[in-house]
Here is the input.
Amino acid sequence: MQDDERLSAFHISLYIALFNNWNMNHFKNPLMIKRNSLMKAAKIGSLSTYTKCLKELHEFDYLNYKPSCNPLGSQINMYSFATSMYTTKCTAPSTLSDSKSVHLLYINENKQNKQGKEKQIPPTQNEIIDFFKEKKWEESEADKFFFHYQSTDWYAGKSKILDWKASAEKWILNNLNSNSRHGKDKNNHKKSGTPGNLHATTNKNYSDPL
Here is the structure.
């Protein structure tokens, strides 16, 4: 659902309310639902929104909805989901009974976002350590980089990091510049001597007149 751009918050809240009812019925199909109680559980106040979302969840293969005029409610068959890297779309319900039907959801690792850029997967700590080692940097610096951006969910300011290697290069460059400035400041400090000390010779002849 997180990656399905067709869904809104109402679709998700309605599905969660349905799933909760399914859970309370020990995952047995078909599931009898009552509109008023379901709308209340999903926090949906509009009948048209409720009907639209329920029909679309059916069309998108999240469940099987059978409209009914029965006063006891309509019937819904919920699906058990699994994931597979080898399917290209949601499969149709299996030939098993509804209570055992399984849908396979396609996970597209190359899915593109709205900007046309490929979805990025955050690097692992070991990948970062290996990259820093290639650049002749210590593992401790790689750990600093990893934990810093891990804590920000791989955001630099308000922007999502799309190329972590470029960010690592920048991190290394900033450290080089920082160390260089530190070295210059240290040398300047040595040249200027210790502040507050009087530089005077020790072999001055005090018998000479001023």
User: Anything to note?
Assistant: The radius of gyration is 33 Å. The helical segments are 9-24, 35-42, 47-59, 125-134, 139-151, 164-192.
